[in-house]
Amino acid sequence: MSKTTIKVALLSLAVSASATSYAEDKATNQEGVIDGINFGPLAQLVGTWKSTEQGGVDVAPAQSGTENGKGAPAATPLYEVMTFEVAADATNASEQYLAAIYYKQEVFRKADDTKFHDQRGYLIYDHKNQTVYNSFCVPRATCVVAEGKAGNDMTLVASGDGIAQSDFMANNASTKDFTMNIKIDGDKLTYTETVKLDIYGKPFSHSDSDTLIRVNN
């Protein structure tokens, strides 16, 4: 067998192994497969979710001129709607295979039904490394990439390079750390999250929590 033939054979084997690896990523855990792509535990989220009747709560630093006083904790009872849709798959640096779902989160005050939080992002599944990423932005010129171990009960954390923000936010309401726990239990979704801020010259833990029920797929 010539050297050229050996090289061609080895190349064919390498391509075949790579294709098989990606196919396994897509086909493993059939319960998480949508349109041939393996979304792992994220597949359970596809659909529309709404808060239970009890709703959730947001605890944020109060604005100047409010009853609580600038920087004091202010609790806001809330309800929300979250919609998850299949997005796409992608390969990073020829070796990290990812499957992503897009989500939209809209949060409203119970007191007057006004929307006070709007968030758009992606939940991204890395089957090989059993990792989930939450990559999102909010219209305050702040974006976050948090990551953690994949599962039905996940804790996703961001800090340092996982946080991007405008110069104004960095100087006046800087996000230092983000932690989110999300639990999927059939048609029930529960989450808690904490954003560590440096605002009004002092640290503040901005927290949100809610329980949502799937209303359609």
UniProtKB/TrEMBL annotation:
Signal peptide: 1-23
This protein's UniProt keywords: Signal
InterPro entries named in the record: Calycin, THAP4-like_heme-bd, UCP036226
The THAP4-like heme-binding domain, residue ranges: 39-214
TM helices/strands, residue ranges: none
Classification via Pfam families: THAP4_heme-bd (PF08768)
Keyword Signal: yes
Protein's recorded name: THAP4-like heme-binding domain-containing protein
The organism of origin for this protein: Grimontia indica
